[in-house]
Amino acid sequence: MQNTNSQDDFDQRFRESLDKNVSEDISEKIVAVILFACALVSVLTTFGIVVIIFQETFGFFQEVSFAQFFLDTKWTPLFAERHFGIWPLINGTFLTTAIAMSVAIPLGLSSAIYLSEYAQPKVAAILRPAVELLAGVPTVVYGYFALLFVTPLLRNIIPLEIFNALSAGLMMGVMITPTVGSISLDAIRAVPRSLREGAYAIGITKLETIFKVVLPAALSGIIASIILGISRAVGETMTVLIAAGLQPKLTINFAESIETMTAYMAQISGGDSPRGSLNFKTLYAVGAVLFLITLTLNIVSYWVANRFKEKYE
Protein backbone atom coordinates (compact mmCIF):
# COMPACT_ATOMS: atom_id res chain seq x y z
CA MET A 1 0.00 0.00 0.00
CA GLN A 2 2.82 2.36 0.89
CA ASN A 3 4.62 1.56 -2.33
CA THR A 4 1.46 2.36 -4.26
CA ASN A 5 1.14 5.76 -2.55
CA SER A 6 4.81 6.52 -3.24
CA GLN A 7 4.33 5.60 -6.88
CA ASP A 8 1.27 7.87 -7.08
CA ASP A 9 3.18 10.76 -5.49
CA PHE A 10 6.03 10.26 -7.93
CA ASP A 11 3.65 10.20 -10.89
CA GLN A 12 1.92 13.35 -9.67
CA ARG A 13 5.22 15.22 -9.21
CA PHE A 14 6.37 14.05 -12.61
CA ARG A 15 3.16 15.31 -14.26
CA GLU A 16 3.48 18.66 -12.42
CA SER A 17 7.09 18.98 -13.51
CA LEU A 18 6.16 18.11 -17.07
CA ASP A 19 3.31 20.65 -17.07
CA LYS A 20 5.66 23.29 -15.64
CA ASN A 21 8.28 22.62 -18.32
CA VAL A 22 5.63 22.78 -21.05
CA SER A 23 4.34 26.07 -19.61
CA GLU A 24 7.87 27.52 -19.47
CA ASP A 25 8.54 26.43 -23.05
CA ILE A 26 5.34 28.14 -24.22
CA SER A 27 6.25 31.31 -22.29
CA GLU A 28 9.74 31.35 -23.80
CA LYS A 29 8.32 30.88 -27.28
CA ILE A 30 5.86 33.74 -26.74
CA VAL A 31 8.67 36.03 -25.53
CA ALA A 32 10.83 35.01 -28.51
CA VAL A 33 7.98 35.81 -30.92
CA ILE A 34 7.43 39.23 -29.28
CA LEU A 35 11.15 40.08 -29.47
CA PHE A 36 11.30 38.92 -33.09
CA ALA A 37 8.29 41.11 -33.91
CA CYS A 38 9.99 44.13 -32.32
CA ALA A 39 13.16 43.49 -34.30
CA LEU A 40 11.11 42.99 -37.46
CA VAL A 41 9.35 46.34 -36.96
CA SER A 42 12.74 48.10 -36.86
CA VAL A 43 13.95 46.32 -39.97
CA LEU A 44 10.74 46.95 -41.90
CA THR A 45 10.70 50.61 -40.86
CA THR A 46 14.24 51.09 -42.13
CA PHE A 47 13.42 49.21 -45.33
CA GLY A 48 10.30 51.34 -45.87
CA ILE A 49 12.25 54.57 -45.39
CA VAL A 50 14.89 53.48 -47.88
CA VAL A 51 12.27 52.42 -50.45
CA ILE A 52 10.36 55.71 -50.20
CA ILE A 53 13.51 57.84 -50.37
CA PHE A 54 14.88 56.15 -53.47
CA GLN A 55 11.48 55.87 -55.13
CA GLU A 56 11.03 59.63 -54.95
CA THR A 57 14.66 60.14 -55.91
CA PHE A 58 14.09 58.05 -59.03
CA GLY A 59 11.21 60.39 -59.91
CA PHE A 60 13.53 63.37 -59.42
CA PHE A 61 16.09 61.97 -61.84
CA GLN A 62 13.36 61.50 -64.42
CA GLU A 63 13.29 65.31 -64.67
CA VAL A 64 16.87 66.24 -63.73
CA SER A 65 19.86 64.51 -65.27
CA PHE A 66 22.77 63.07 -63.30
CA ALA A 67 25.04 65.58 -65.01
CA GLN A 68 22.94 68.51 -63.74
CA PHE A 69 22.96 67.05 -60.24
CA PHE A 70 26.58 65.99 -59.90
CA LEU A 71 28.46 68.29 -62.28
CA ASP A 72 26.78 71.67 -61.79
CA THR A 73 28.27 73.93 -59.11
CA LYS A 74 25.13 75.94 -58.33
CA TRP A 75 22.14 74.97 -56.21
CA THR A 76 19.12 77.19 -56.93
CA PRO A 77 16.11 74.86 -57.38
CA LEU A 78 13.71 77.45 -55.93
CA PHE A 79 14.79 80.28 -58.23
CA ALA A 80 13.47 81.20 -61.68
CA GLU A 81 16.81 80.13 -63.16
CA ARG A 82 17.08 76.65 -61.76
CA HIS A 83 20.33 74.84 -60.99
CA PHE A 84 20.50 71.46 -59.30
CA GLY A 85 24.20 71.06 -58.49
CA ILE A 86 24.44 69.28 -55.14
CA TRP A 87 28.05 70.25 -54.42
CA PRO A 88 27.35 73.58 -52.63
CA LEU A 89 25.20 71.69 -50.10
CA ILE A 90 27.81 68.95 -49.69
CA ASN A 91 30.48 71.62 -49.31
CA GLY A 92 28.53 73.42 -46.58
CA THR A 93 27.87 70.14 -44.78
CA PHE A 94 31.50 69.08 -44.72
CA LEU A 95 32.77 72.58 -43.92
CA THR A 96 30.73 72.76 -40.72
CA THR A 97 31.56 69.13 -39.97
CA ALA A 98 35.29 69.80 -40.26
CA ILE A 99 35.04 72.74 -37.86
CA ALA A 100 32.95 70.66 -35.46
CA MET A 101 35.36 67.75 -35.42
CA SER A 102 38.34 70.06 -34.91
CA VAL A 103 36.65 70.95 -31.62
CA ALA A 104 35.08 67.61 -30.67
CA ILE A 105 38.14 65.38 -31.23
CA PRO A 106 40.61 67.18 -28.91
CA LEU A 107 37.97 67.98 -26.29
CA GLY A 108 36.37 64.54 -26.33
CA LEU A 109 39.63 62.60 -26.39
CA SER A 110 41.21 64.78 -23.70
CA SER A 111 38.22 64.36 -21.42
CA ALA A 112 38.28 60.59 -21.97
CA ILE A 113 41.99 60.39 -21.10
CA TYR A 114 41.54 62.49 -17.98
CA LEU A 115 38.51 60.59 -16.70
CA SER A 116 40.14 57.22 -17.35
CA GLU A 117 43.76 57.79 -16.34
CA TYR A 118 43.97 60.79 -14.02
CA ALA A 119 40.65 61.53 -12.32
CA GLN A 120 39.79 60.00 -8.96
CA PRO A 121 36.81 57.60 -9.11
CA LYS A 122 34.58 60.01 -7.18
CA VAL A 123 35.55 62.91 -9.46
CA ALA A 124 35.01 60.79 -12.59
CA ALA A 125 31.60 59.71 -11.31
CA ILE A 126 30.58 63.39 -11.17
CA LEU A 127 32.30 64.72 -14.28
CA ARG A 128 31.24 62.03 -16.75
CA PRO A 129 27.47 62.63 -16.31
CA ALA A 130 28.13 66.37 -16.42
CA VAL A 131 29.92 66.03 -19.79
CA GLU A 132 27.29 63.69 -21.18
CA LEU A 133 24.62 66.17 -20.12
CA LEU A 134 25.67 68.30 -23.10
CA ALA A 135 24.19 65.64 -25.38
CA GLY A 136 20.79 66.18 -23.79
CA VAL A 137 20.57 69.89 -24.63
CA PRO A 138 18.14 70.48 -27.54
CA THR A 139 19.97 71.33 -30.73
CA VAL A 140 17.78 74.38 -31.29
CA VAL A 141 19.27 75.81 -28.09
CA TYR A 142 22.76 75.33 -29.50
CA GLY A 143 21.67 77.06 -32.68
CA TYR A 144 20.33 80.17 -30.97
CA PHE A 145 23.28 80.24 -28.57
CA ALA A 146 25.60 80.25 -31.59
CA LEU A 147 23.60 82.97 -33.34
CA LEU A 148 22.99 85.28 -30.38
CA PHE A 149 26.13 84.78 -28.29
CA VAL A 150 28.98 83.08 -30.16
CA THR A 151 28.64 85.05 -33.41
CA PRO A 152 28.57 88.53 -31.75
CA LEU A 153 31.53 87.49 -29.60
CA LEU A 154 33.56 86.29 -32.58
CA ARG A 155 32.66 89.36 -34.65
CA ASN A 156 34.59 91.45 -32.13
CA ILE A 157 37.69 89.47 -33.08
CA ILE A 158 37.32 88.48 -36.74
CA PRO A 159 35.02 89.70 -39.53
CA LEU A 160 32.07 87.36 -39.85
CA GLU A 161 28.70 87.46 -41.51
CA ILE A 162 25.73 87.23 -39.15
CA PHE A 163 25.10 83.71 -40.40
CA ASN A 164 28.35 81.83 -40.82
CA ALA A 165 29.87 78.36 -40.82
CA LEU A 166 32.30 79.03 -37.96
CA SER A 167 29.77 79.66 -35.19
CA ALA A 168 27.61 76.74 -36.28
CA GLY A 169 30.62 74.43 -36.49
CA LEU A 170 31.92 75.42 -33.06
CA MET A 171 28.56 74.74 -31.42
CA MET A 172 28.25 71.45 -33.23
CA GLY A 173 31.69 70.53 -31.91
CA VAL A 174 30.61 71.17 -28.33
CA MET A 175 27.44 69.18 -28.96
CA ILE A 176 29.35 66.19 -30.39
CA THR A 177 32.05 66.17 -27.69
CA PRO A 178 30.06 63.79 -25.40
CA THR A 179 29.71 61.28 -28.26
CA VAL A 180 33.44 61.20 -28.95
CA GLY A 181 34.37 61.38 -25.26
CA SER A 182 31.98 58.71 -23.99
CA ILE A 183 32.83 56.05 -26.60
CA SER A 184 36.56 56.82 -26.35
CA LEU A 185 36.37 56.53 -22.56
CA ASP A 186 34.78 53.09 -22.80
CA ALA A 187 37.46 52.03 -25.30
CA ILE A 188 40.30 53.26 -23.08
CA ARG A 189 38.87 51.60 -19.97
CA ALA A 190 38.58 48.34 -21.90
CA VAL A 191 42.38 48.20 -22.34
CA PRO A 192 43.70 45.49 -19.97
CA ARG A 193 45.40 46.73 -16.84
CA SER A 194 48.28 44.36 -17.53
CA LEU A 195 49.38 46.47 -20.51
CA ARG A 196 49.74 49.52 -18.31
CA GLU A 197 51.55 47.59 -15.59
CA GLY A 198 53.93 46.08 -18.12
CA ALA A 199 54.79 49.56 -19.42
CA TYR A 200 55.37 50.88 -15.90
CA ALA A 201 57.56 47.86 -15.14
CA ILE A 202 60.04 48.76 -17.88
CA GLY A 203 60.27 52.36 -16.67
CA ILE A 204 57.90 54.18 -19.04
CA THR A 205 56.23 57.25 -17.56
CA LYS A 206 52.46 57.52 -17.24
CA LEU A 207 52.16 60.04 -20.08
CA GLU A 208 54.26 57.85 -22.39
CA THR A 209 52.19 54.82 -21.39
CA ILE A 210 49.00 56.63 -22.38
CA PHE A 211 50.23 57.69 -25.80
CA LYS A 212 52.40 54.67 -26.67
CA VAL A 213 50.43 51.83 -25.12
CA VAL A 214 46.87 52.70 -24.05
CA LEU A 215 45.74 54.84 -26.98
CA PRO A 216 47.11 52.47 -29.66
CA ALA A 217 45.38 49.56 -27.91
CA ALA A 218 42.11 51.53 -27.78
CA LEU A 219 42.48 52.84 -31.32
CA SER A 220 39.54 50.88 -32.73
CA GLY A 221 37.07 52.41 -30.29
CA ILE A 222 38.55 55.88 -30.63
CA ILE A 223 38.36 55.86 -34.43
CA ALA A 224 34.82 54.49 -34.24
CA SER A 225 33.84 57.34 -31.90
CA ILE A 226 35.31 59.90 -34.29
CA ILE A 227 33.50 58.47 -37.31
CA LEU A 228 30.23 58.30 -35.38
CA GLY A 229 30.82 61.92 -34.37
CA ILE A 230 31.25 62.83 -38.03
CA SER A 231 27.98 61.05 -38.84
CA ARG A 232 26.26 63.03 -36.10
CA ALA A 233 27.68 66.30 -37.44
CA VAL A 234 26.70 65.49 -41.04
CA GLY A 235 23.13 64.80 -39.95
CA GLU A 236 22.72 67.81 -37.65
CA THR A 237 19.88 70.14 -38.67
CA MET A 238 18.71 72.84 -36.29
CA THR A 239 22.11 74.25 -35.28
CA VAL A 240 23.22 74.81 -38.89
CA LEU A 241 19.76 75.94 -39.97
CA ILE A 242 19.74 78.71 -37.36
CA ALA A 243 23.41 79.72 -37.22
CA ALA A 244 24.87 78.94 -40.65
CA GLY A 245 22.17 80.37 -42.90
CA LEU A 246 20.52 79.32 -46.14
CA GLN A 247 22.94 80.41 -48.84
CA PRO A 248 24.40 77.45 -50.75
CA LYS A 249 27.95 78.37 -51.73
CA LEU A 250 30.90 76.38 -52.99
CA THR A 251 33.43 77.95 -50.60
CA ILE A 252 35.84 77.08 -47.81
CA ASN A 253 35.51 80.50 -46.19
CA PHE A 254 34.11 79.76 -42.73
CA ALA A 255 33.20 83.43 -42.24
CA GLU A 256 30.48 83.29 -44.90
CA SER A 257 26.93 82.10 -44.77
CA ILE A 258 26.46 78.59 -46.20
CA GLU A 259 23.75 75.96 -46.44
CA THR A 260 23.97 72.30 -45.53
CA MET A 261 21.97 69.37 -46.87
CA THR A 262 19.94 69.04 -43.69
CA ALA A 263 19.19 72.78 -43.60
CA TYR A 264 17.84 72.64 -47.14
CA MET A 265 15.70 69.63 -46.28
CA ALA A 266 14.27 71.50 -43.31
CA GLN A 267 13.58 74.48 -45.57
CA ILE A 268 11.63 72.36 -48.07
CA SER A 269 9.81 70.55 -45.29
CA GLY A 270 8.22 73.83 -44.29
CA GLY A 271 5.32 73.09 -46.63
CA ASP A 272 5.79 75.79 -49.27
CA SER A 273 6.52 73.27 -52.03
CA PRO A 274 3.49 71.27 -53.29
CA ARG A 275 3.75 67.52 -52.89
CA GLY A 276 4.82 65.84 -56.11
CA SER A 277 6.45 68.99 -57.53
CA LEU A 278 10.07 69.05 -58.63
CA ASN A 279 10.95 71.25 -55.67
CA PHE A 280 9.44 68.66 -53.35
CA LYS A 281 11.37 65.84 -55.03
CA THR A 282 14.66 67.64 -54.41
CA LEU A 283 14.04 66.92 -50.72
CA TYR A 284 14.33 63.18 -51.40
CA ALA A 285 17.28 63.55 -53.78
CA VAL A 286 19.26 65.42 -51.14
CA GLY A 287 18.05 62.97 -48.51
CA ALA A 288 19.30 60.04 -50.60
CA VAL A 289 22.77 61.61 -50.86
CA LEU A 290 22.79 62.26 -47.11
CA PHE A 291 21.69 58.67 -46.45
CA LEU A 292 24.49 57.27 -48.62
CA ILE A 293 27.08 59.47 -46.89
CA THR A 294 26.03 58.44 -43.39
CA LEU A 295 25.73 54.80 -44.45
CA THR A 296 29.27 54.92 -45.83
CA LEU A 297 30.56 56.48 -42.60
CA ASN A 298 28.87 53.80 -40.49
CA ILE A 299 30.27 51.02 -42.67
CA VAL A 300 33.75 52.52 -42.42
CA SER A 301 33.34 52.83 -38.63
CA TYR A 302 32.34 49.16 -38.37
CA TRP A 303 35.21 48.04 -40.61
CA VAL A 304 37.84 50.12 -38.79
CA ALA A 305 36.65 48.97 -35.36
CA ASN A 306 36.87 45.30 -36.36
CA ARG A 307 40.13 45.73 -38.26
CA PHE A 308 42.03 47.27 -35.34
CA LYS A 309 40.23 45.14 -32.78
CA GLU A 310 41.72 42.05 -34.38
CA LYS A 311 45.13 43.66 -34.39
CA TYR A 312 45.27 44.65 -30.74
CA GLU A 313 43.37 41.80 -29.14
Structural summary, described in words:
The protein has 313 residues and is mainly α. The mean pLDDT is 83. It has two domains: 61 residues; 243 residues, MetI-like fold. The chain has twelve helices and no strands.
Distance from first to last alpha carbon = 67 Å
The number of helical segments is 12
Q: Please state roughly what percent of the residues sit in beta strands, choosing from under 5%, 5-15%, 15-25%, 25-35%, 35-45% or over 45%.
A: under 5%
Query: Total domains, how many?
Result: 2
Q: What's the main sheet like?
A: none
Number of strands: 0
Query: CATH superfamily name of the largest domain?
Result: MetI-like
As residue ranges, the low-confidence spans are: none
The fold-level CATH name of the largest domain is MetI-like fold
Q: Overall 3D geometry?
A: globular
CATH class of the largest domain: Mainly Alpha
What is the string of helix and strand elements? HHHHHHHHHHHH
- Which class do the helix and strand fractions yield? mainly alpha
Radius of gyration using CA atoms only: 27 Å
Helix content: over 70%
Summarize the structure.
By secondary structure, the protein is mainly alpha-helical. The protein contains 12 helices and no strands.
Provide keyphrases for this structure.
313 residues; mainly alpha; MetI-like fold; 2 domains; globular
Write the layout of secondary structure elements.
Layout: H1 2-61, H2 66-70, H3 87-118, H4 121-132, H5 139-155, H6 165-189, H7 193-201, H8 206-217, H9 219-234, H10 238-243, H11 261-268, H12 278-312
Helix pairs in contact: 1-12, 3-6, 3-9, 5-6, 6-9, 7-8, 9-12, 11-12
